[in-house]
Amino acid sequence: MDDKDRGAPPDLAPPKGTTDLLPPESWRVSRLARLAMDTFAGAGYGPVDTPIFEHTEIFERGVGATSEVVGKQMYTFTDRGGRSLTLRPELTAPVVRAVLAANLQRGPLPVKLAYAGPMFRQERPQKGRYRQFYQVGIEAMGSALPAVDAEVIEIGSRFLASAGVETTLLLNSIGHVDSSCRTGYLKLLVEYLEEQRDRLAPVDAERVHTNPLRVFDSKEEATRAALEGAPYITDHLCDDCAKHFESVRALLEDLGVGYELEPRLVRGLDYYTRTAFEFVDAGGQQGKAARLGSQNAFGGGGRYDGLAESLGGDALPGIGFALGLDRILIGAGGGPDDDVAGGPVNAYVVAIGAAAARPALSLATRLRASGLGVDLDLMGRSVKGQMKDAARSGARWAVILGDAEIASGESTLRDLTSGAESRVALEDLAGLLAP
Fold first, then answer.
1. For domain 25-179+238-332, which architecture applies?
2. How large is the C-alpha radius of gyration of the chain?
């Protein structure tokens, strides 16, 4: 078939709102995800991986049919079997589903799980907000004690600090969905919003009776101005919810985790109860706020004590968070030349002359087998070209092999930072090159 019969070539750009992740940026994402999972594992959170798509009902029942995520942002399709499936827009509901499906709630509690992976939402693309985005997070299920809230929040705060971003923790309690405080407060809030209906943005006016708490999550300037006099739920907490929130705050203070009370913080999903929190850019370093732009939240989370029941399971209180790797990388402000950007290659084997190519491959393979990250030329480059490639690889060392080195069973070891050289026996290389 001639090329002209094949039609126009495909658009090679990634779909709108997505991006190709390539080195060196992909190394940074990979390292950040490993840092997160290692941090979470250190507190007993085991890895969980659920399917990228779920039955649509999981999100309709779990996240909430009236939420903006379900109503406007999900990628939903019908498969060949007539089933409605959705690319996951978040991972808490799928993780709870997986726990219930495996009956983990009937074993040792709490169930502590951690994840890293892509999510999908059809939002308006902008800096720090993509239609395929990457999150890390943890979920702790089975305990309603305030200590779990404090542990989860501290872990998130510590990871963000180790990732190189400066954050402010915003904290609130939105009461329990089944408590008298939530019921009484919603009545007061609806009455207030009805009085302000003419000042609300149209999309928020529609939520007054379907999902009034979501109005606090609005980004519309008119709505935010109308909410200035709105009642705070923290002023109407029942005794149990108030004591729970007081204990969470005291425990965070014990752990040295600073926070700011934000009585308007509700988060964007319907399953949240009691503790709600968000990590936002503190803007403490020059240029940091400008890099992150209008999307100033790195992520957040809260309690979801009724989520398991909404999915048809037994009561299983839980709390967790999700943090956006894309936004963390923007907030950290690293570039392609920083230490985080390089790959795991520690040494680069340089072959001088065609006769050294075969021994160079053997040497690189032996060093890799010993656990080292090693690269070498596979394009037949000149020595000058190999040295340039060695510098691009991020390696610290160049291991140079020529006729003289091969004859003596040695290599010339060059420090690519300082330029210093020394002759080293091949059998001693692995020990010297270990990072």
1. 2-Layer Sandwich (3.30)
2. 27
